[in-house]
Amino acid sequence: MNDTPVESLKGIGKQKSQDLAKAGINTFQDLIYYLPKSYEDRRSPTPIANIFGEGQYFVAGKVKNKRFKYMGRKSLLTFDVEDQGGGVLRVVFFNGIYVNNMIHQGDEYSFFGKISYSGGWIQMVHPEFAPLGSHEDERGILPVYGDIGRVKGRQIRSLMRQINSIDPLEATEEWLESSIIKRANVCSTSYALRGIHFPREKKEILEGKYRLIFDELLTLETGLLLIRGKYGNKENGVIISSEHMDEYVKRLPFTLTKDQKKALNEIAGDLESSSAMNRLIQGDVGSGKTAIAEISMYAAAKEGYQSVFMAPTEILAKQHYESIGASFQALGIRCGLLISKQSKKLRDRILTDIAAGNIDVIIGTHAVLGEGVNYNKLGLVITDEQHRFGVNQRQILTEKGQNPNVMVMTATPIPRTMAVAVYGDLDISVIKSMPKGRKKIITKVAKDKLERNATYSKVRDELRAGRQGYVIAPLIEESDAIEASSALELYEEMTEKFSEFNVALLHGRMTGDEKTEVMEEFYAGKVDLLVSTVVIEVGINVPNATVMVIENSERFGLAQLHQLRGRVGRGKFQSYCFLILSSNSETSNQRAEIMEKNSDGFVIAEEDLKLRGPGDIFGTRQHGLPNLRFAHLTKHVDVLQNSLKIAKDILKDDPRLAKRKNRHLKDRVKRLYGEGVNLIL
Ligand code: ADP
Ligand code: MG
Q1: Is 0.85 topped by the overall pTM?
Q2: Does domain 442-598 bear CATH number 3.90.660.10?
């Protein structure tokens, strides 16, 4: 660890050190972890005759046929380079007066640049050059660094050399135990850093980067496991008998699907085991996850345990409270709603009841884990579409002296490996089979005005038949103000178009109360057509709604379109989804086509992945994980799995990273997670 400030390097003054500081680089150590963005292979010149295709090449030869001419105020320098093999390449410099004076006919130089082809010639325009054998004629695999403010990439290369001469990378101290290095089959830190900045062979770069990726993922996974409290939390998980599950299953107005049954069996196993449940329930919209949640909460209540059901929004919390509450109240199970917009008096009463154990099932937003909420006997926590759950929440619960069973429900098709990374050491149940009798939603794309009109006349037919519908306003990510105003415009158009019906508006700029009021009217069937922004996205369940129009549908991600579409087709009626396209680009058409053809969320997510690349969907941010510098969660799945196993073993042996041999790992975890993890370590 070299903590020498970068300012002590030659060539780094006040200004440049400020630029480096802005990028988080203050010490030698920091700079060493700034990696090259690419490399130039200048080990030995390529014979010109062997140049093939485009790309960058390093060549060397004698300058011939040098010509320099003025064309008005501009100038053009051209010459040929002939190498030992007799190959010839043309070099071109525009406005090359300066170069003209440096390059001499008949002398030998090396050139590095991009190859292009023009008029039958292989040529390089504006290559880098140096007299052959001179000091500037650098050889080797040269790292190329990105600029950091006023510190240019080329200077960074020389800074690395300075550091290396003061404190050779080859001698970097190892932070990881040798047994782990062996087990993970990674190279040493010294080899990695030297290989990355001063590679002798290309494989050293790959091995070096692999090591840094491993280090980062090991740190990530160790932190996650610590935060999840899976280790070191010596109290056992709450044991709940599943004896009463069947009573509730029998009361349901339908029979469970095969996958629902399977998930339920897995949950029963978890509840009955002495280690706390940590399970992800993954199932497409409408696959019946809520029923699974109800059955589990019923079983817990019958055994005298409290359950928490956490919804992503207040609207959804209220919706669940009403529907779950209705079935539970009839069975003598007491439910309570906890949301932030509640009178203090009501809230206080609920809090008292929770603490006294007079409420069995608490439904709400993340407020359910907030300050002042003290559970009497918490046995089960269920979260619905709350991906961020866990990074801090399990810790909060543990601090409240509880180690409940945790179930995370999601309709987002997260690949298994990713889910494990995000949720730590968890189990997964997948619900794939859909309830019987569900009609497939008919999806149609509307590309022009005519088709848009036809769409709205279909909407009119549905409303006339007594059904309800949604019109989704364009997604405007940069600004909810603009989003709201475009929703308003659409709302005005719809009130005019559908003057004989009740049209309502819902957007993110409305207050919680306003939103709730609109939703209640929609549930009650008083509103026929709801114009809404994506605030409607998750979980809304109105079986009488059979038609959805999504305006500017090309602005939405496919996964999001799928979520939105899942708001219709929830009852016995045939349902429709219309995607209005206002762009005729190839990708928009392709994406719309994927939606027309597929109804399986997993398939759609895969297609989305192909079109957009992994970064967008499975970014670390979205899951509340810290930012990663070297590793990529989807690209480095194998490393991820490996590091998870190793992290588990480290924590089994040393649950709080208290042993001296783990002190560096502990520091790294703290640095990666910051505040969140400080309480535990
Ligand atoms: P999810 O939460 O997975 O999106 P829900 O639990 O809201 O899905 O279920 C959607 C609808 O399907 C609800 O109206 C629910 O009552 C119903 N449902 C759930 N399971 C079944 C089943 N096995 N058979 C028939 N209908 C079901
Ligand atoms: Mg749901």
Answers
A1: no
A2: no
